[in-house]
Design a protein that fits this description.
With 501 residues, this protein is mostly helical. 72% of the residues lie in helices and 1% in strands. InterPro entries: DUF112_TM (IPR002823).
């Protein structure tokens, strides 16, 4: 009851005219920057940070939270319409969401994403308010060996799931891991794959790789085929801006499963919502294979609903981890942690005791932000779908410009623009040879975590590799991984046997 009383007081503060205004401003800014490739919520929060020192801390962090949640809504918009997600967390939404858009169901796809993000975010907000201490204690049981097992699970599961060819999936993963190793070795200080270029000493930015492979690679792919195959960009933006009863019934279980997958990852520092969105997509694809008429690959609504719910659920509990533990699990959360310190505040258990006037209005604003984002995105789904009426040369030309602007804004380096062009060509080659992009992104995102965790685990055990399987969590993760591999191998053997018959 004490929690409900404190939350009620938080709503009183959040509904004050100025704080309510900052919620709306944050949601609008987050959605706007999310729509533009390369301009994610982390960049928006970073750009707003110097401007918010004129605000009181409560208003500033309420606006940051709106930007954080709104960025995911905006990311999914371009991921669905143009197959160009603003951040890696929206990659999984492109697989079925973009197929729905190409099939003339863009408005329904956007509605599915908006409702899924709303469901995941609202449930996460409830969890953060009532169950944050329990989730935090569970996360505290993760050590270096557990993080390595989790990364390995993501590597193998993703590589074997998203491609019909395991070889192509592993090749894409190795390419992503190779990109992640470029730069100065954090342990030894040695140069790795820099070819003597000082610009590569800090490694290759994830923003550059994401925009190049997903957005610019798609532009090159369309440009290469548009003359001989004009229908490649022909989409019918017509359709209902709401879901039918049948579609809602189809998506509802996927929203629930995606939310359940995303909630725990908000307190596990594995780089944000990329891993749970892929896992949610993986689960739905496996369930789809058991159906009499599989729908994945044709615009399956469940393949979009689950990742969207998982992404926002992770973001919600990530805010809880930041407030309760001072633990940033994504780039945006890390920037917000820096903002807390700029205001002289230290997130953690003491934050709830010393500044309840900030914490509880901020938690209450999560619920308000979800409602505002649903109001902003759901009625305008059909309007967003009208983007598909823009002639292809102008549309994809504009995407190219925004790709370059987004990368240059984050680095102020012409070298990064050259990298963007080169990696974009790699993305184009991968598309031409049907190589999956998801393993590359997973390798890029989780490669540093896997490397650091493996080194820390071995250093703590004096080189004893048994430390990697020394806890019940690692046994569970490796056991699930073994089951995934056996099911994948069995499925491929059965499919090949049927083909031979």
């Amino acid at each position: 009851m004490e929690v409900l009383e404190l939350l009620g007081q938080g709503f009183v503060g959040a509904f004050s005219p100025m704080n309510l205004l900052w919620v709306v401003v944050g949601c609008l800014l987050g959605t706007a920057v999310g729509v533009l490739p390369g301009l994610g919520s982390s960049m928006a929060v970073a750009l707003l940070l110097p401007m918010t020192f004129a605000l009181d801390p409560t208003g500033a962090f309420i606006m940051f939270a709106g930007v954080y949640f709104g960025g995911l809504f905006g990311d999914s918009t371009m991921a669905i319409l143009m197959n160009t997600p603003g951040q890696a967390s929206a990659i999984a939404s492109t697989f079925e969401g973009h197929r729905m858009a190409k099939d003339g169901r863009a408005a329904q796809a956007l509605a599915t994403a908006a409702i899924g993000a709303f469901v995941g975010g609202m449930i996460a907000a409830v969890v953060v308010v009532f169950l944050a201490p329990q989730l935090a204690s569970w996360s505290a049981s993760f050590g270096s060996a557990e993080y390595f097992a989790l990364a390995l699970f993501a590597f193998v599961a993703t590589s074997s799931v998203v491609s019909d060819s395991v070889v192509k999936g592993l090749a894409s993963l190795v390419l992503g891991l190779g990109i992640a190793t470029v730069g100065i070795d954090p342990t030894s200080g040695a140069e790795r794959a820099t070819f003597g270029a000082p610009q590569l000493f800090d490694g290759i930015s994830l923003v550059t790789v994401t925009v190049a492979v997903l957005a610019l690679g798609e532009v090159f792919h369309i440009a290469a085929r548009i003359r001989r195959d004009p229908d490649v960009v022909s989409m019918r933006p017509s359709g209902r801006a709401w879901l039918s009863r049948k579609e809602f019934k189809e998506a509802a279980p996927a929203w629930a499963r995606g939310t359940a997958i995303g909630l725990p990852f908000g307190v596990i520092p594995v780089g944000g919502s990329e891993v749970p969105t892929f896992m949610a997509y993986d689960l739905e694809r496996r369930l789809d294979r058991r159906r009499r008429e599989p729908a994945f690959g044709k615009g399956a609504i469940r393949g979009l609903a689950a990742p969207e719910a998982a992404g926002n659920a992770t973001t919600g509990t990530a805010m809880g981890a930041l407030l309760a533990l001072g633990l940033p699990v994504s780039a945006t959360a890390a920037i917000m942690l820096a903002a807390f310190r700029q205001y002289g505040l230290q997130p953690g258990p003491l934050l709830f005791e010393r500044t309840p006037e900030l914490v509880w209005p901020l938690l209450a604003s999560f619920f308000i932000a979800m409602v505002i984002l649903l109001i902003i995105n759901l009625p305008f789904a059909q309007l967003w779908a009208k983007l598909l009426l823009i002639p292809a040369p102008y549309l994809y030309g504009g995407i190219t410009v925004f790709c370059a602007l987004g990368v240059y804004a984050t680095s102020s380096s012409t070298f990064e623009l050259m990298l963007l062009l080169g990696i974009g060509f790699v993305g184009f080659i991968m598309r031409r040879h049907d190589m999956p992009l998801a393993p590359l992104m997973i390798g890029m995102v989780l490669g540093p975590l896997a490397e650091t965790s493996l080194r820390d685990a071995l250093l703590s055990s004096n080189g004893d590799y048994s430390v990697l399987v020394s806890s019940w969590i690692t046994w569970i993760l490796y056991g699930i991984l073994a089951v995934v591999l056996l099911v994948t191998v069995w499925t491929k053997v059965v499919r090949r046997t049927r083909a031979d018959v």
